[in-house]
Design brief:
The complex is a heterodimer of chains A (259) and B (391).
Chain A: E1 3-8, H1 17-25, H2 32-36, E2 47-51, E3 54-58, H3 67-71, E4 77-79, E5 85-87, H4 97-101, E6 108-109, E7 118-119, H5 125-129, H6 135-139, E8 145-149, H7 150-163, E9 183-186, H8 206-213, H9 216-245, H10 250-253
Chain B: H1 8-30, H2 32-35, H3 46-58, H4 61-71, H5 81-102, H6 111-114, H7 121-148, H8 151-159, H9 161-181, H10 199-226, H11 232-259, H12 271-291, H13 294-298, H14 300-330, H15 338-361
Classes of the chains: A alpha+beta (259), B mainly alpha (391).
Chain lengths: 259, 391
């Protein structure tokens, strides 16, 4: 069963305990200065942002069909069956295509290291595999961040909107965006307010390139046939021209004869 | 052997290489953050935009011309095969060198050989570039074999010449277009003046335009500095083909903008619009307008000017895709750090210098000792005067 995180911004109290729990689990530094940072970075995988009395969390969306896993040339990014999207540094070559391609600009980089890693939330893959909930859900005192089965959480999110239509936008962010994500969001204000991209396709991003990559075998097979055929015809034409020209001067003119 | 003369260009090259060396120490001593203006918001900069995207594009003459001569048997062009294959080979080697600067963990580049992800466009590009560089080395090999008089190796090379050319053309078709496909997955990030489902096709077609322009450019350069060049009739034919290719690209680019409703973006005066106009003026409007005049098309100087415009124009195109078009969505303005520019300039400088040395010491241009990169008849006696035998 695929797991997910449901974050309900209307229940969030901006206590940032999720940030602290995340830092602890990932062995990242955490103090007042870092808590004040509203941006995710190579040392902060999740950030709770505030605009007036409205709050929003940002973290890796752990997409159902992740763009990062699709673009990585060496398969360092992987979607696990449980839901988390993991990063394997031992495969990474540092091309940063995942950073450029991610529709949510999630992956961050250790720019100051000479052997840098990509850094991002991996939805506590090890904990989830062991049957535990994510560190952020564990730390949340209000239930604003809730961990569970994706299908059950979607049903619950729909239920919350139906029961309090005035309190929520009628939009579960992550239900359909880029084909669905394992992080689902509820909010009373538009998600763009906090930098979430709007107007994303409901189709997974990887299908944009798969359509093209599917034609690679065609180019190779039909291309060799076509080029080989053209060569055969033009070569034959040269041979005929040589034969018809002057047989006496054959030695120098057979230059066009292919072995 | 007399001592090498000190010329203006040698001094410039020396200065660039010293700056490049400093930048190299900075890059590998202190990391990408210290050596570049790249950031989490803007992870790909000059080294991807110029060194990789432009580098591969500028080397496109290799496959265009080998196809022309070996597949289509347009024998007139045989004399320029060598300089073109040489530039292509050097281009790819330099692209790979540049990659080691840009990759955060370049020493694991070999992972692409054993850790596969066939779903990735970059995986396909990596494989094509690796294979095509090998193909180019094999296509270039006869020049060395001839110089070293290795007749046996020449014969072996001769036997596999045609399949090698076909493989080279196919690999080039794939990765030249795939460099455009890299951006297909970013419809929400790349500016609509450049994002189109036709990106792979445009990258491929413009690579052919630049391949033709580079061949004209190189011939003129070596005429100036080494007294070795191509005959004017050949340059004229290249100019005519270039005009046709540019017209085709221009019409398709216009139709694409029209059908996507992106033309109205041009009514706005934005940074992106200005860069777009610069790009199409250099790459399309000026060269097409000039080449339409027979006076320009027929003269060596006119052709040289048009070639330079096309090269600069499509360099602008690649930089627009990789940098200009990505800035708005990233929310930052990117301008490369001195060390990024120094590395790029060094790589370009090494390219020019190697080309110069090769023209001087290897039988590259017809005047320097003739033949073709892939001699159809093995052996050094692959008669030079036959190059133009066929009308």
């Amino acid at each position: 069963m695929s797991k997910a995180i449901l974050y309900d911004a209307t229940m969030c109290i901006h206590c940032k305990l999720c940030e602290q729990g995340c830092a602890q689990r990932n062995g990242l530094p955490y103090d007042d200065a870092i808590a004040a940072e509203e941006q995710r970075s190579e040392h902060k995988f999740t950030a709770v942002m505030a605009k007036g009395d409205k709050y929003m969390r940002r973290l890796c969306m752990n997409c159902v069909d992740p763009t990062c896993a699709s673009v990585c040339p060496v398969g360092a990014m992987q979607k696990t069956a449980e839901g988390p999207v993991t990063y394997d540094v031992s495969r990474c070559i540092g091309c940063r295509y995942c950073m450029v391609a991610c529709p949510f600009s999630v992956p961050k980089y250790e720019w100051d290291k000479t052997n840098p890693r990509v850094r991002k939330c991996d939805m506590c893959a090890d904990r989830v595999r062991a049957g535990q909930q994510t560190a952020c859900a564990d730390a949340c005192p209000t239930g604003a961040t809730k961990f569970g089965d994706r299908d059950a959480l979607i049903a619950e999110a729909k239920d919350r909107i139906a029961k309090n239509p005035g309190q929520y936008l009628n939009h579960i962010y992550g239900l359909e965006e880029v084909g669905g994500t394992s992080v689902l969001l509820l909010s009373s204000v538009p998600f763009e307010t906090f930098g979430y991209p709007s107007g994303l396709s409901t189709e997974p991003m990887p299908s944009l390139t798969h359509r093209v990559l599917a034609h690679v075998p065609d180019v190779l097979a039909l291309g060799s046939l076509l080029l080989g055929g053209i060569w055969w015809i033009t070569n034959r034409r040269s041979e005929v021209a040589v034969a018809e020209a002057e047989p006496s001067d054959s030695l120098s003119r057979t230059k066009n004869h292919e072995g | 052997m007399s001592l090498p003369r000190i010329t203006f260009w040698k001094v410039v090259l020396g200065a660039i290489l010293i700056a490049g060396l400093c930048a190299t120490v900075l890059r590998f001593g202190r990391g990408l953050g210290a050596a570049t203006h790249l950031s989490d918001a803007f992870p790909w900069g000059l080294w991807i935009g110029f060194d990789v995207l432009c580098g591969v594009m500028l080397a496109a003459g290799g496959f265009t011309l080998t196809a022309t001569v070996y597949i289509f048997h347009l024998e007139n062009f045989r004399p320029i095969i060598r300089p073109t294959v040489l530039t292509a080979f050097m281009g790819y080697v330099l692209v790979i060198v540049a990659l080691f600067y840009d990759l955060g963990r370049g020493w694991f580049l070999w992972h692409a050989l054993i850790m596969w992800n066939p779903r990735s466009v970059l995986f396909e590009v990596a494989w094509c570039v690796m294979l095509y560089t090998t193909v180019l080395a094999l296509e270039f090999a006869p020049i060395l074999f001839e110089r070293l008089r290795l007749e046996k190796l020449l014969k072996i090379q001769h036997a596999i010449a045609i399949p090698l050319v076909i493989l080279g053309v196919l690999l080039s078709t794939l990765h030249q277009s795939s460099l455009g496909s890299l951006y297909l997955i970013m419809p929400n990030k790349l500016h609509p003046l450049w994002y189109t489902p036709w990106l792979p096709l445009f990258f491929f077609l413009s690579a052919i335009c630049v391949g033709l322009a580079m061949t004209i450019f190189e011939s003129s350069m070596s005429a100036k500095h080494f007294g070795k060049q191509l005959e004017l009739p050949l340059l004229r034919s290249l100019g005519r083909v270039l005009l046709v290719a540019l017209l085709l690209y221009a019409v398709m680019r216009f139709l694409d903008l029209y059908h996507r409703g992106a033309l109205r973006l041009l009514a706005m005066r934005t940074y992106e619009t200005n860069m777009f106009l610069l790009e199409v003026t250099l790459a399309l409007i000026l060269p097409i307008a000039l080449l339409l005049f027979p006076r320009v098309r027929e003269s060596a100087g006119g052709l040289y000017l048009c070639a330079v415009l096309v090269i600069l124009g499509f360099i602008t195109n690649r930089l627009n895709v990789a940098i200009t078009g990505m800035e708005a969505s990233a929310g930052v303005h990117y301008f490369p750090k001195w060390s990024e520019i120094a590395v790029t300039a060094s790589i370009v400088g090494i390219g020019f210098a190697t080309f110069g040395l090769a023209v001087k010491y290897l039988p590259i241009f017809p005047a320097a000792g003739e033949g073709s990169a892939i001699p159809l008849r093995a052996g050094p006696q692959a008669a030079p005067e036959l190059s133009h035998a066929r009308p």
